[in-house]
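Internal QA ticket QA-208
Title: Verify multi-chain structure generation after dependency bump
Assignee: T.L.

Test input:
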Amino acid sequence: MTAVVFEQPAVLQPKQHGKPGGFLRHTSIFTGLAGGIVLATITYMIGSKLVPWGTQNADFSQVGLNALIAATMFAWVIGFMAGIGAFAGPIRWALGHDLTHDDAEYMAGKDQGKFRYWKYTTDHKVVGTQYFVMVLVLLGLGGFLAMLIRTELGWTWSELFDPNFYNSIIGTHGIVMVVAMIIVVTGPLGNFIMPLMVGARDMAFPRLNALSFWLLFAAVPPLVATLFMGGIRDGWSVYQPLATQAGMGMVGYQVLIIVFAFSTGVASVNLITTAVTMRARGMNWSRVPIFVIGIIASSVMGLVWFPMYQWSQILAMSDLVVNSSFFNPVAGGSVWLYENLFWLLAHPEVYVIVVPATAGILELMTVFLRKPLFSYKLAIAGFAGVVGISAIVWVHHMYMTGFAPQVGYPFMLSTELISIPFGFLVLVALGTMWRGKVWTRLPMMCVYAVIWNKVIGGITGVYLSDVPVDQYMHGSMFVVAHFHFMLMGAGLFGAMAAISYWFPKMCGRMLNERIGSIGFWTAFAGFQITFFSMFVAGLQGQPRRVLQFDNMFNVSNWISTIGAYIIGIGMLIFLYAIITSWRGKTYAPANPWGAKTLEWQTETPVPLENFPVLPVVTSDPYGYGVPDPYDAIEKELARDDNAAKVPQ
Amino acid sequence: MSTTTTTGPLYPTTGEPVAVNARRNRLGVWLCIVSDLTGSIALLIAYSYLWSLNVNNAWAPPKDAWASDVPFFLIVLGTVLATISMWWGYKGLVKGHKDRMIVGATLATLLILVTFIGQIVQMSTFPFDIQDGAYASSVFWLCMGSAIHLSLVLFFTMATVFRTKADRITPQNPYHARLVSMWMTYVCVVIAIGALFTLVMKESPNTNAPTFGTFTTAK
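Actual output:
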């Protein structure tokens, strides 16, 4: 038998250039904002002298002005990233000035107090917390816009908003919520919890981790600016040729997606590499917590499909600002090309949202039921099936576009097929609950809600995937209700479950469950009222994305609006529970739920390097009630010891 | 039981063996390649989709002024030679010849620089403008994609020269040079596929294209 032993000599350090952290000692969000504003202003001033504003393309949109706005927005992003210090790392690397251990610790935020949250900090816990706050802000913005939409639709006897403004509210609400939901689990929990769960000291690429968050941060102002530049009037899908004919607001949308796709790609690379290569000793693939599997599955879909969406927007921006001809049929372009590229991501994106939330609820169910996961392998098969089949379902969004009608039925079949792996996941959840003694806490309450919502959303999705049914339902409020049941009902409520479960580890405080539960159940009740009523309106034939509708839809819309306000009140109560608990004094113990996974085995608040000594995994993460083999060995040794003490 | 002791260089920030860190980086680069490949496929889908449909009979550029084939393949040739040079340097490095790495990476940098300039020249001398129909737009963006890839490669090859000179890339720790070579090999493949598309897909096979009429630009 041969053993290979790595000696641990003192680690040779590269030359320390100045104080640890170097250039990054002088950068923060404030220098980033200054850099972004200065570069954007300079670009705008120079560009406005060079670009003929009045230039129009064949669709009479302002090509010159669009180009100027696009250049200004990209200048903002580049200036912000330069100002916050994102380029310092690559430049140092290229010049051979590698980071020392002290540099790395400074960049991870050591001894910087709360100011580390305002800097280009690489520690995964800081990045996770930054994502958490960003998610709350985006959900708040998207939710506020949803309230405006429902107010307009509930106020059926008059118009509150100008129709163009109403359209831009719809589009902005859609894309803000899609972005927020994509990051709601993988952002805060993927970054904060997942490395702890696999027993790692940090993410595989800490600087990329910071890059992914700050790219997202830089991409948001262009989106918000669109509201003041004509808005996104074509829904979140911004179909062609409407997008090319749109005004400057469309540029903000395109900049957001192009930059956000980089952010997502970088984050996906990081999450997958961390989960695959940084697992603790003893954590073989059958011992990997199911939440980690969900994060991998979600990241794979984002990594593979997001570039399609990104390129659809790059080419659309090219049409908008330099008058190229990708999507303009007059000049040889095709609107179907756009729709294919768009939906190649935009359908898998549903699973990018729902899969990690589902994995989160499966993870916490084992804790609150004190049972192993019912068929771990079936859950893996479910995630693998969703990832695989999600690649071949996108055309079901295009049945009514006239695109290749003969492929409708194969895609109908593939879409119905995906309900099988999703069914696996529901079965695993139900099987885990079967005959279990439930410890009913807030996270577990959310699980019931998610299962209910997912079943409703899934069943109505099967209807919509049928070509004949879709011919009637397409573009109706029925579709709106369906995808809200999936994205909000399964995705957001699942995220609420996961956040309330991991809140003690992330924030170091116990979440006020009394207030949180009131908020959660209020939001759940409002959700059912809003969207069941919307199903009715859809079945009656109310089209989506319209400001004015027939009086026959009034009652459904009044009910939906009342429900939406109830959701809003519930969410505000839940937010209040988060904020007051976070600022409160009810400190959380290291493992308040008595869970077996690794993130709960380290102290709270989590130290900079996560674990004093890297853990070694010796048992199943869900082996509740199963004695740890090392405990048995210790008992055996103790018995032998006692036996040895007995006089012969 | 016999015990062998292995003392390898350690990664300064984490104290792990550099080989462990290199394995992690290699997976990261492979994932980046997968993601970049999907984006490149999106461009190739756009090119072939518009070529096959010939919407409004507007695929072809004005007066059938197609782009010349030769520059595409000169750009592929430049990238391939740079990649060979990089691999040659890397192979020398792992045999202990650090100077060969510096020569190989420097040569690769120069070749990529010339190729990048060639790419810009090609784009500025097309016999059409980006606004001249679907073919023109698609070819411009294929070339733009190639230029973006080349600029990234230029950064990496220059970094390899600097890092080798600064003893960050050594025979004991050659991993970054290997990753750059891997990336360059991928870039060769993707640029070659793009060039192949422009060579074999010129005239659209759809001679009975649907027409949508014309607009005039407002003055």
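Spot checks passed. The CA atoms of residues 56 and 148 of chain B lie 31 Å apart.
Status: verified.
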